[in-house]
Design goal:
Largest sheet: 8 strands, mixed
Distance between the termini: 33 Å
Shape: globular
Structural class: alpha/beta
Number of helices: 12
Strand content: 15-25%
Helix content: 40-55%
Strand order of the largest sheet: 5-4-3-9-15-13-10-14
Length: 343
Amino acid sequence: MGKVKVEGNPMPTLLYYPLVKPPEAVLHQALLYWDDLASIVPRDPEVYEDAVSDELKDLKERGLYHPIDLGTRYRTPLDDMLHLEVLLRELRELAAGLPTPQASVMDAFLFRSKVGYLLEAEIVRLGLGRRLGNASTRRGADLAVSREVQLLLIGALAQEVALAANDRAYTPYTDQRSAYETSLRPMAPGLGVAAWRIELGRLLPMPAPGTPTSKVLAFRDKYAPERERLMGATQTLLSELCRNWEHPADVLQRMRVELNQAREDYQSAARASRTAWVHRSISVTVGVATAAAGALIVPDLSWVAGIAGSIGFNIATREVRPLFHAKKEHPFSYLYQVDRELA
């Protein structure tokens, strides 16, 4: 299948985090609305074999899954990336909230090659993690940490991988709200940049739970034009809201006919497929790199929201960490909430 073009760029690859294997719903989301799926995988070949499921390996053979090995492609660990000071400060705040040193419950794991020596040493010093010996039952997972630390670092890593890639447009995507918010929130009020928060769940229906992946792949192939038209229009909308943030109503008015037509065509395809479909919450944060957080105040936001509702989504504003300055092509980050079904 050819790539869907959005103003000369390929449709983004869904970059799932914080785990290697996405849940079924996220996997199906990637197959329907993205070119392919990616996740960050362990370097060690034996650990890779255990972590990557047979289903993902099969999708890799089809060209639909892209494992990211930081050891060969992204050689820079987190402690050499753009916002080390932000991560160090958040780690120290986590440690300060513990009643006593070493009180953190270390029920999660990290690969030291993903973290880097400086962050690893600080995590251990703060009592937020401990190094594991060779006797660990999890080969290669050689840093035990709390769940909070894992979500903080893997979320940051996903954002950095998306920024560093030049040949792919990665879209960070998670089903865990804590990982999502940790990777985006500014250090303090007033220190962030402006962003749109958009709920797309009504625009992008999902196969009902339990639908076989083979059936999703068959739909992907049979209804490729409808599928690509809907996601292409959605990506264009997000890009336009990023670039023309001062005039959201104009963007929505220009896109209204195209989006409505794309949605109607897709819904017709969904009905013809004889598959059960549901609407789940899919939120996307769209970074506005040129605007200070206080600048994204739209006097007619209620009217803008009314236009958005007529197309099939909701829109609001929020503040995020100033991380999107380095790359403006696709400054998006998604949160999928499987427990929130939209009526």
